[in-house]
Write a structure and sequence with these properties.
There is one protein chain. The radius of gyration is 19 Å and the shape is globular. Helix content is 41%, strand content 12%. By secondary structure, it is of the alpha/beta class. It has 13 helices and nine strands. Helix 3 packs across helix 10, helix 4 runs parallel beside helix 5 and helix 5 runs parallel beside helix 6.
Length: 351
């Protein structure tokens, strides 16, 4: 290879054929260069900061039947729960005392969480913790729903597009779901002034290098503030139970490429990355990641939010073990911070 990693570092983009070659490359020197350049770029925009965000998983009910997801409506052995408004506020109160200044409310597409309910929760969080950011990850909703929640005080919205290739999207989702609507939701969120997160699975069933390039090109159009990717991990209760999981190597490769193509993006080291390897999150941080989301959900429901098999819910994934997580981050060569952690365009650069 003609040092594609260096070219991507210098120019921020590559032609499709060179991107494909880099994605598929097993050249150790090339991969090491990608890690080096990704870390250099993240430090240029964010220094050594790793932003901690408190994750509150509010519902394991979902009306959708995505073929890869352990809380899909067709997964009949899934353990279902919903947090009511007081429970969500209590999780945030605990998180605030621990130092968190961003709360991420995540759940399946649960019709019980109406606009009125969500706006009430968001307004209360905004009133009690005006120095905190409220991030939502609740799937596809109407433009009016997004507008109302934004006016109630929501700051960010995470909605993985999952696959920008129509062919691949249709293989991962039931016929009633459409890539067109998913993209429409993301553009609505941008129009309404949210900081927007998109993303996809690394190593999803049927995924090719061309599919990954389609994801990267779509995100160049969307220009999200955050990009969330993690390895595909099968769940025993889904049609993809026997599919191979995504690899650590591919996920790290894509994290590095994303950091170089989107230098100022917020890039999480996901729970899934830590699930496939004990060193996964540390390696993610060294390959451009700068966000970690410990779990603030009540301990008795964490294992019920079972998106994929063997999902981590204790240890340094848990907000109670915050010092352990901070040490893990420090040992990787970075330092955990408890500020809001806005996109680089909305804050001062570096430390």
């Amino acid at each position: 290879m003609n040092n594609a990693a260096e070219k991507l570092y210098r120019t921020g983009d590559l032609p499709d054929e060179e991107l494909s070659a880099l994605i598929l490359s097993e050249d150790a020197e090339e991969n090491a260069a990608l890690v080096k350049y990704a870390d250099e770029v993240r430090r240029k925009y964010y220094g050594s900061k790793v932003y901690l965000r408190g994750l509150i998983e509010i519902s394991s009910f979902c009306k959708n039947n995505c073929l890869y997801c352990g809380i899909r409506r067709g997964c009949h052995d899934a353990q279902r729960y919903r947090l009511d408004r007081p429970a969500i506020i209590e999780c945030a109160a605990k998180g605030y005392k621990l130092g968190f200044r961003t709360f991420v409310l995540q759940g399946g597409e649960d019709p019980v969480f109406t606009d009125d309910l969500m706006c009430g929760v968001i307004s209360e969080l905004h009133e009690k913790y005006p120095d905190c950011a409220v991030t939502l990850s609740l799937g596809e909703r109407s433009r009016e729903s997004y507008r109302r929640m934004k006016e109630a005080g929501a700051d960010r919205y995470l909605l993985r597009h999952e696959a920008a290739s129509p062919e691949l999207y249709s293989k991962l989702h039931p016929p009633e779901m459409s890539l067109e609507n998913r993209k429409k939701c993301l553009y609505w969120l941008r129009e309404l002034g949210y900081q927007v997160g998109a993303g996809f699975m690394a190593g999803a069933p049927f995924q090719t290098a061309d599919d990954i390039i389609a994801d990267l090109r779509f995100m160049q159009e969307l220009r999200p503030h955050m990009i969330g990717i993690g390895p595909f991990i099968p769940h025993h209760g889904t049609p993809f139970a026997e599919k191979k999981r995504g690899t650590l190597d591919l996920t790290l490769k894509l994290l590095g490429i994303i950091r170089l193509m989107f230098p100022d993006v917020l890039l999480p080291a996901t729970t899934a990355l830590g699930t496939i390897s004990p060193q996964g999150r540390e390696l993610g941080l060294k390959t451009g990641c700068n966000v970690v989301m410990p779990n603030l959900s009540p301990a008795d429901v964490r294992k019920k939010y079972d998106l994929y098999d063997n999902k981590l819910s204790s240890g340094s994934e848990a907000a109670e073990c915050l010092r352990s997580l901070e040490e893990e981050i420090e040992n990787a060569g970075y330092h955990a911070v408890h500020e809001r952690g806005d996109h680089a365009s909305m804050q001062n650069k570096g430390d």
